[in-house]
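ingest -> validate -> predict -> emit
validate: passed (alphabet ok, no gaps, 322 aa)
predict: started
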Amino acid sequence: MNFRIKNGLLLSLFSILLYSCSEPSVKEESKLISDTDTKLVTFRNLKAKIPVNYPEELLKYGPDDLQLIAAKGKGSANMRTTEGNSFDEIAENVLEEYPSFDEFKPEQYKKYFPELSENEIQENSEDILDFMEKLMGYEVAISVSTLPEGRNLRVTSGNNPGEANSCEKWYYANHLRLDKGGIEYAAGKALDYTTIYYGSNANDHTMANSFLHAVWNILLGKHAAYRYGDVWKAREVIEGLTDAHECDSPDDEKQMDLHNNDVGLEYFNTYAERYKKNLVDHNVRLNKLPQEYCDYIYYSSAVKIARGSSFTANNYTRVYYD
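emit:
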């Protein structure tokens, strides 16, 4: 598919509505949930609280499940939802409701994990953040489901270069630790570096396009997935996002693009590292300059293959058709 990276995952900035003193904000309201409004569920052997009318199954939902919930309008009037006029606005507002992914503060998660001490919350931080992503993703889905008919997010061809396809959007909703600004930055920089190294934006199936895909994945790992607590998990999340980018591509194009994505992911997996951001947080970083990883990809092996043919290549070799 035409790469022109569909960076619609860039969520627009919206003004924050101010409420009167007698009317709590959405963020404040979420803090006022009482024990009678919640129920205990088990997530990876940890006891956690969710709203009483949320299904326990949400802890196993993936992007397809969220999209189906939104498309079928399965949110109900008695469920706590988040206001917004679009998917992007709802996702942004849900992020505002919950503790920030940029700084893990154990005390902020006590209301979700009341049986854990703050030390135990810190020790289980990755599982707890995974839980929060599941909870928040479900809230995005049921909130989008309440939008007027015709405004639910449905599968599209993704032909508009400025729009992500619905697979990417719902993958993002299921992985809200991804940095939306980093996703856009990676898209733009991958195109810029391709122009620098090949003289033009890469058309589909070309050697330049194989470079673009590989560098894009490195940039996503560096600038969008750094909030995940270990390198392999960050790699998996980026792989899922870039797989979603190809969800409606023809099989031969998808096979080639996914392989070139893997070349970049292999580089990220090899050179990225887990580090302790502060006393509590572990993040992932890639201490490589753009010229280092761009040169590596540019000078890596690249093999031309027959269009529509199957191929076998290692994760250090790019492939292209034209």
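The first strand starts at residue 38 and ends at 43.
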